[in-house]
Design a protein that fits this description.
This protein is an alpha/beta fold and 356 residues long. The chain contains 11 helices and 9 strands. The strands form 3 sheets. It has a 4-stranded mixed β-sheet with strand order 1-2-3-4. The structure holds zinc ion (ZN). The site of zinc ion has 5 residues, from helix 1.
Length: 356
């Protein structure tokens, strides 16, 4: 997630704020100031900040429940439409997923109970009016927590309610199909949100609709990809016919190789098929565009920390390696010689072939 910066660490997760969050604050402050002056602006800003503290608490509900199942949450990002806890992975046992999904809304219910105990009533107000001056802060905050819990339980995958729905579907069908069904449901709800938001002139709803629509699709694809990956070994996915460079090859030689082959990355192999690194097309072009002499060795600009897997390693390990940014993953024999490699592009091809 770019365009966001770190506030600090809390309970083992990095707390980040997206820059557009400040646009929301500015909009709320400005709207209140122009209708009710400075006191209204301050009251509304305090309210929005308190509301987002509740949103953060909601996300920590997910994160702390996930931790019980050994899943870390590297970061939690605040967006104008709510919070986003990025879990390292999703629990695949349906009941664990239900517990993680419910933990967020449960936190808001708990906050609501505490606020009611502190004397909050139940005014009729909607989230569409969070920029207006209204009854006491406590009442609004209590109501909005109830609303947050209810809203998140709408069964639109990947919102919390949709995750519960997916987990229940998993009891009846396999996970890939369950995710696909839940994602289609989520997208239909998102379209309804979108129309509702447009017809009532509520930009927040439209934003949420777009977000849910896109997220449902990408998570559904990710689940399908991981499921294919689990059934494929590195040796079935690797590129075995390739042009390799030797450590004595120059950048000029490498440039010729880029032209004469369809490869975008070239292994640099020493004696006994020992892998020294990968020269990528991007690195080569950058070097040639800079002031690297064309007679420099290819080894001077190659990527050296290439992850290695065994022939019988699962493709999931490879996906994780590529996910961390490596240009290629080397597949090695037990003796440590590179016998092939895997790139993002050939995994893409494999997915098209295997997922039918
Ligand atoms: Zn949630």
């Amino acid at each position: 997630m770019t365009w966001s910066f770190t506030l600090g660490r809390l309970l083992g997760s990095e707390l980040r704020v997206h820059v557009t969050f400040f646009l929301l604050l500015a909009w709320v402050g400005f709207a209140a100031y122009s209708s009710g002056g400075l006191p209204a602006a301050i009251e509304n800003l305090v309210f929005v900040l308190a509301l987002f503290a509740c949103v953060v608490a909601h996300e920590f509900g997910h994160a702390l429940m996930a931790r019980r199942y050994g899943i870390k949450t590297p970061d939690i990002t605040l967006l104008p439409i709510g919070g986003l806890a990025r879990l390292e992975r999703m629990p695949e046992k349906p009941m664990q997923e239900v517990a993680v999904a419910l933990a967020g809304p449960a936190v808001n219910i708990a906050i609501w109970i505490v606020l009611v105990a502190l004397g909050a009533g139940m005014p009729f107000e909607t989230i569409a009016q969070i920029d207006s001056t209204g009854p006491a802060l406590l009442n609004r905050l209590a109501y909005v927590n109830l609303l947050l819990a209810a809203f998140n339980m709408i069964p639109a995958f990947p919102m919390d309610g949709g995750r519960v729905f997916r987990a229940l579907l998993c009891l009846k069908m396999d996970r890939v199909k369950a995710t696909k069904v839940a994602a289609i449901g989520g997208q239909m709800v998102a379209v309804a949100f979108g129309f509702w938001g447009l017809s009532t002139g509520n930009p927040l709803l439209v934003l949420i609709a777009v977000f849910v629509f896109v997220a449902a699709n990408s998570e559904s694809q990710d689940v399908a990809m991981r499921s294919v990956a689990r059934r494929v070994l590195a040796r079935d996915a690797m590129i075995t016919e390739f042009h390799a460079l030797s450590p004595s090859d120059t950048l000029a030689t490498a440039a010729q190789a880029v032209i004469h082959t369809t490869q975008h990355e070239f292994p640099v192999m020493g004696a006994d098929d020992h892998l020294m690194g990968f020269l990528t097309r991007e690195r080569l072009f950058a070097a040639l565009a800079g002031d690297h002499p064309r007679s420099d060795p290819a080894t001077s600009v190659m990527v050296t920390d290439i992850p290695q897997v065994q022939l019988t390693s699962g493709l999931e390990t490879v996906l994780d390696g590529l996910h961390k940014g490596a240009p290629a993953i080397a597949v090695c024999s037990q003796a440590g010689n590179m016998v092939g490699y895997i790139t993002r592009e050939n995994i893409g091809e494999l997915m098209v072939i295997r997922s039918r």
